[in-house]
Design goal:
The chain is globular, with a radius of gyration of 21 Å. The protein has two domains: 181 residues, Metallo-beta-lactamase, Chain A, CATH 3.60.15.10; 124 residues, Rossmann fold, CATH 3.40.50. The model has no long low-confidence stretch (mean pLDDT 93). It has seven helices and 19 strands. The strands form three sheets. It has a seven-stranded mixed sheet with strand order 7-8-9-10-11-18-19, with helices on one face. The chain is of the alpha/beta class.
Length: 329
């Protein structure tokens, strides 16, 4: 297979022969940021992102003096030197985007970033990005990862919440502060459940609402504690924090796609539910086929195994490997 138009150099993605980086963590002259999760964020001299991602990045990184943000809308092509760039919704979290880079010779190269093809309440619906060459994430790239329909998972979470409340316990749901937390808060808030959000989630909620995503019936989890009947949402890494320890009695559930492995993450939780903001294996396969790409490069998660699955489907695919060449800067 010919080499990928996007190369992996020192662990970071760069459009070959250019200064455009994709989801680089270190400061670069120009970087596309697909979404505002911390493992995709960097303080670049020039940042290309959607307006929602730019707002969430400002919240997470603060104002960046000496840096320029180039806000871009979905499906609005624009030029960058000899390249033509166009963003497509990735369906992952609010503002998440894929990018299609059309090279001077006309080759269209697509990069998905993190991808979710299931409809959500708090993010723009995913778009299939037509391209010639595709670089895609493969976090859940094994056949065993098949998520139940999201509405079934949310119904199961609701039963957990109702059972806890009926027994006089406070349900504590563990979900990432950007994306997962807003999804579950909107679900329960719109059903009329009074909710409390940890401070780190509450701050992200404010950005969501400023970007036009209302989150009703949600209050800050403060030192006064919780009232009977409230649902609490906390980031997983704070499951053992003082704020959670003060909630008694409580029942705790973690919301993660890895629940399919039977994992009860972060210690003593009472339940785990496979609620994910990533595409599962069948969805990744369908997406790759839908783009029409003749070549696919995979990365993250089970990249080698997913590339093999794509080859079985007749798609020329291989995992992206580190480039041996030195960086340009």
């Amino acid at each position: 297979m010919k080499r990928s138009p996007i190369e992996l150099v020192a662990g970071e993605l760069r459009v070959r022969g250019t200064g455009l980086y994709l989801d680089a963590r270190r400061k670069r002259p120009c970087g596309f940021v697909s979404h505002a999760h911390s493992d995709h964020l960097g303080r670049h001299e020039r940042t290309i992102a959607t307006r929602a991602t730019a707002a969430l990045a400002r919240h997470r990184l603060g104002d960046r003096k000496g840096s320029e943000v180039l806000p871009a809308d979905y499906r609005s092509p624009f030029g960058l030197g000899e390249l033509t760039l166009e963003l497509f919704s990735a369906g992952h979290v609010l503002g998440s985007a894929q990018i299609r880079i059309t090279l001077p010779g006309g080759l269209a190269v697509g990069y998905t970033g993190d991808l979710c093809t299931e409809p959500t309440r708090t993010a723009e619906p995913v778009e299939v990005m037509p391209c010639d060459v595709l670089l895609m994430e493969s976090t859940f790239g094994l056949p065993k990862y098949v998520f139940p329909p999201k509405e079934e998972v949310l119904a199961a979470v609701r039963r957990f919440v109702d059972d806890a409340l009926a027994d006089g316990a406070t349900p504590v749901l563990l979900g990432y502060s950007l994306g997962k937390a807003q999804e579950v808060l909107k679900h329960f808030g719109e059903l009329g459940y009074p909710c409390r959000a940890h401070a780190t989630i509450h701050a992200v909620n404010q950005v969501y609402e400023e970007q036009g995503v209302p989150l009703p019936n949600v209050r800050l989890l403060g030192p006064e504690g919780v009232a009977p009947g409230e649902v609490v949402v906390v980031p997983p890494q704070l499951a053992r924090s003082a704020a959670v320890a003060r909630i008694r009695p409580r029942r705790t559930a973690v919301l993660t796609g890895w629940a399919l492995d039977g994992a009860r993450w972060y210690g003593n939780v009472d339940a785990s539910f496979p609620l994910s903001d990533h595409a599962d294996f069948p969805s990744l396969l369908r997406y790759a086929k839908g783009t029409g790409a003749s070549r696919v490069f995979t990365m993250h998660g089970h990249a080698a195994e997913f590339a093999q699955s794509l080859r079985r489907e007749g798609i020329q695919a291989e995992p992206l490997e580190e480039s041996p060449q030195m960086e340009l800067w």
